[in-house]
Amino acid sequence: MPHYKHDRETDLVTALRECAYLAFDTAAEAHHDTTTVHAYDEAAGEWKPIPADRLIVTFKLSDSEKYQWRQRECTRFTRREYIRPPWYLDPVWREAIERITAADDDDPRLAHYVHVSVNQPGKIAYTQNDSHGTADRQTVVRPGRYLAKYFSEAIDKTTIDRFCGMLTADRYALTVTKDPETIERVYTTEGFGSCMRYPFPSEYFRGNCHPVRAYGGNDSDLALAYVGDLAVGEVLARTVIWPDRQVYNRIFGHRDLMIPLLEAAGYSQGSIRGARITAIACKGGYVVPYVDNVSSAELSRDRRSLVLGQGRVSVATTEGLSAAEEEEEEEELFSCTRCGYESHDSDNFDGDYCTSCFESMSYCEECEEYHHHDDRSSVESGDRYICDSCFSRLSVECDRSDCDREWIETDEFTREETAAREVRHAIGLCPDCNREYDGCPHCSEYTERGSTICDECGESTGRRCPDTADLPLTATTGDDDTTAGETAGERDGRS
C-alpha cells in the first residue's frame, strides 16, 4: 500500500513509526476516504483526531516495487506492445537523452517510457511518475506539449516542431493480404513469440511448405491483416481475418494499435469457425497452421479446402502437419475464446466464453463490451463505470501543471457548462480547478475566479463587474483567433 494519509505537520517516517496514518492502494482511495486519522498526544496521554484540513497523502514506493513496474514497461517495448516515437533514433534526441543521463542517471524523464498512443492517433503516451507506474497508468498528450514541458531546455522549438511533424494520425495503416508468400513473410518477420514465427524449412515444421500458407490463396476464406513495413522488416501487429464476415481472430503484437484500425475498417472480434483454409496435401495428411480458438477441421466436398470447426484434421498442432484420419464424426467441440477451455457440452459456455470466464467479466458502458477482470479493470467516471482502455481514450488531463487529475468532459459537465467553460477559457481545467480558476484569453496561464487582471501577462481578463457577474454566460464566436474547446496550453502552442 504505497499511499499514506497522515498529518502534514509530521513527516511520513515519524507517522509510520507512531502509527498515525492510514494506508491505501491508490491515491484516489486515500483522497476520497473519510475515516478519521488519530495521533497520540503525549501531553494529554490519549489519541486525538487529526483535523481533516491537516491531512495529506504521501506516496512511498520500495526499490523492489519501482524495479517491477519499470521492468514491466521495458518488456512492453521488447514484445512490441509499445511503439517508440518516430524521433527516437534522431541524433538530436539521442544527444539530449545522453546529456540528461550524464547529469543524473535517475532523472524522472528517463523513466517516462514514452511511446506512440494508438488509441488516440497523433499523440504520445508516457508514465508520469512512480505512482502512475505502479498503477499501470499512462498519460496521453500531444507530442508538442510533452516535449515542451519536459525537454524545452534540451531541444529547441524548431526541433520540437520537426519532431511533432513526424507523428501524424495516419502514420500507421492496415494492410490485408491473401498472398501465401506475403503471409509467410509477415509471420517470419514479426518476432512476437508465436509458434508459427519460425522460417521454413526448419526443425520446427514438417510438411512441404510453411503452415501459414494455408491461410492464403483462392481456396481460403481467410486473409491476414497486419500493420508494419515488410521492406524494413517491421511488423507491429497481425491477426487472421474473415473478410466476408468482417471478423478477426486473436491479435498478436500491439493490440491498441490494431483494434482501432480494424474497427475503422468495419471489423469486430468473432469466431472463424466455418471458414475455409486451403487444403495442402502432404504425406497422407495436410499442411496446417496452429489456428487460435479452433482445434479441428474437415475436408470440404471438393477436397480443395479444410473447413474449420469440426472434423478429424487437427489444426491445434505446432508441427505444421496433421494426419487425415478417417473416423466417425464426433459431436461439436466448443472452445472459450479467452482461456482456450474446450468441451462438447454447450451448457459450459455462454456465447464465445466458458461460464467461468463469463462470470468474471464486467460490462463497459462506453464500448458496450464485456471485459475479463484479469485483462482490464473498470474506472468510475461520473455516474458510470467504463474500462481503462475507454477511459484512456476519452479522458483529458488538467492543464494546470500542479494537477494530475484526468476526466471525461461529457461525464463531468453538461453541454451548457462546457459552453460556459469555453467562454471563460477554462475548458482545459478539471472539475476541481474549474471551481477556482479562469483562463486568461491572452496567455496560457490561469487566474483566480473573478480576477480582472492576469497576474502573468498583466492584460485584462475581460471578466465582468460584480453587477453583471451572476448573469448567464453564453458561448459566442468572434474575430479573435481562439478556437472553441481548446485548452490554454493548446492555444499557447498554436501558430
Task: Compile the SSE list and pairings.
Blueprint: E1 3-7, H1 12-17, E2 21-24, H2 27-32, E3 38-41, E4 46-49, E5 55-59, H3 63-78, H4 91-103, E6 115-117, E7 123-126, H5 130-134, E8 139-141, H6 143-151, H7 157-166, E9 175-177, H8 180-190, E10 223-229, E11 234-242, E12 247-253, H9 255-264, E13 268-269, E14 276-278, E15 280-282, E16 285-287, E17 296-299, E18 305-308, E19 313-314, E20 321-323, E21 334-335, E22 342-343, E23 349-350, E24 353-354, H10 355-359, E25 361-363, E26 370-372, E27 378-381, E28 384-387, H11 388-394, E29 396-397, E30 406-407, H12 409-412, H13 415-423, H14 431-434, E31 437-439, E32 446-448, H15 488-493
Parallel strand pairs: 12-13
Antiparallel strand pairs: 1-2, 1-5, 3-4, 6-7, 7-8, 9-10, 10-11, 11-12, 14-18, 15-16, 16-20, 17-18, 17-19, 21-22, 23-24, 25-26, 27-28, 29-30, 31-32
- Taken as a percent bin, the fraction of beta residues is 15-25%
- Gap from first CA to last CA: 45 Å
Q: How would you sum up the global shape?
A: elongated
Walk across the major sheet and give the strand order.
9-10-11-12-13
User: In which range does the helix fraction lie?
Assistant: 10-25%
Mean pLDDT: 83
Q: What does the main sheet amount to?
A: 5 strands, mixed
Detailed description of the structure:
The protein has 495 residues and is of the alpha+beta class. The chain folds into 5 domains: 3-59, no CATH class; 63-166, no CATH class; 175-327, no CATH class; 360-394, no CATH class; 411-495, no CATH class. The protein contains 15 helices and 32 strands. Strands 9-10-11-12-13 form a 5-stranded mixed sheet, with helices on both faces. A 4-stranded antiparallel sheet has the order 14-18-17-19, with no helix packed on it. Helix 6 packs antiparallel against helix 7 (157-166). The chain starts with a strand and ends with a helix. Mean pLDDT is 83; it is low at 475-495.
